Amino acid sequence: MVGYAVNGKMTEMTKQLTVAFRAPENLQVTATVDPANNYKVNVSATALYETNFKVYFGENPNETPVTFLEGQTVSYVYATTGTYNVRVVAQSGGAATSQQIVPVTIVDPILLPLTFESPTINYNWFNFDGGNVTVINNPQANGINTSSKVAKMVKNAGQPWGGSFLTLSSNIDFSANKIFRMKVFSPRVGARVLLKVENSANGSINFEKEVATTVANAWEDMVFDYRAINAAQNYNRIVIIFDNGTVGNGSANFTFLMDDIRLVNSLPLSLPLDFESTSTNYNWFDFDGGNATVVTNPQSNGINTSSRVGRMIKNAGQPWGGSFLTLNQPMDFSTNKVFRMKVFSPRVGAKVLLKVENSANAGINFEKEVTTSIANAWEDLVFDYSGINAANVYDRVVLIFELGTPGDGSANFTFLFDDIRLTNTFPVAIPLNFEYPVTYGWFDFDGGNVTVVNNSQSGGINTSAKVAKMIKNPGQPWGGSFLTLTQPINFAISRTFKMKVFSPRAGARVLLKVENSSNPSQNFEREVATTVAGAWEELTFDYGAINTSLVYDRVVVIFDLGTPGDGSANFTFLFDDLRLH
Q: Do the domain assignments include residue 557?
């Protein structure tokens, strides 16, 4: 500092002056996880007397801070889950600073689909009343599920409703997808699997479906149809209960695996094929004149009153014209090797070929052909697949009607089909052609004896491989045999029986009787006589007067009623192809 007098003299003095900035005050830091990205944090800050801010996100110990101004938001995406200390430093115009540390927790959300593969998701199942779920390494990495991790449910002793639930990080979106799928490994067939969704704040808001397992000790992809759910409600909890209504015991019989819980918008294409689902795309591929579509059942009667069926029109084209359908998963021939299919044919004797193929290699295939035995009525055809190589993969079904004959698109080449399914037994039902490897269970009485044998008289109108042989031995004049069927005879089809008979003599009387197996007094019978000897002929039995309001599930056959047999060739008869016509 310099001072001047009026005479021009001056005085000077030096004094040290310190200039300092005030430290920022009232620092407020906001650090929030981004709603669209659970690994992203957004940071902003305010303070008094600050000039700018620096932020350290806390993942890298040697990180370079990011500078930002008040009113700005800076973001950072973490590589892994965990709790991080976000440190914000408020800077002044000088050296003075203020800082605040805000902890931020980064977690993986629990959302559909549930695959159990993420090591960073906390699958926090809540177990209740005996249910216990854990996430484990997949002990059954095979078949349709070779993933690394699965969930295991052990149903221990507790309540019949024992199970587990998992609360998700957000509500389930049912706006477009309403079909749940879940892979399940069950120790037994028929185990009931309940999948329920709830509102975690109000358990009375819920929806559930229960289905049963169809295979044992193998993965299957179960389907839960949620199309009836009220999608306007909020559901953020999944509940799983196995065998609801049965108390578990914690054994292997009550240990289940589950995986890949997900929502889709269509039902799977797999056996059985009943064509009832409007959410399934039955994408038949037509070739060389065949044309298959799904239609409203125009013949809802007899053994098939379902709403929808398949219709095959064989148009002009090649003799092998048909259609095929590729399934979403391979068919399981490990235990079931008998195909059943309901068919409505315009005529008797129409050939029906059912073939399975590998869609990636059509050279891997198996087929069987059978013929219709009635016209203008539903019948349940049987295809014996006992010779199939079950080690191969088959995921395609091929249908050809009248292989070898070109169609013309007329009513004569229009067929209906439905309920294509695999079973493990052959039916004992009308029509009886004795071709299936099944124990027919004829009950012989008073001298009659029926066995199924190779056709020793293959010729004329009957060249089939197997027939029934009746020997009438000494006994009573009414000696014969009866067969109890697995289902009642459907006389809505017809009231006329046909049966092929090979008799050693003309004039042999053949009685065909039907009974109620629980009440044999409910019966009806007709007797006709053979007209040729030493050759096959087809006999006709007029059942027009039968009381169709009664149930008949037993067939009785007696040859030469009123005459005792002697077991000789003169009392040995063959019969085959017993059917309604």
A: yes
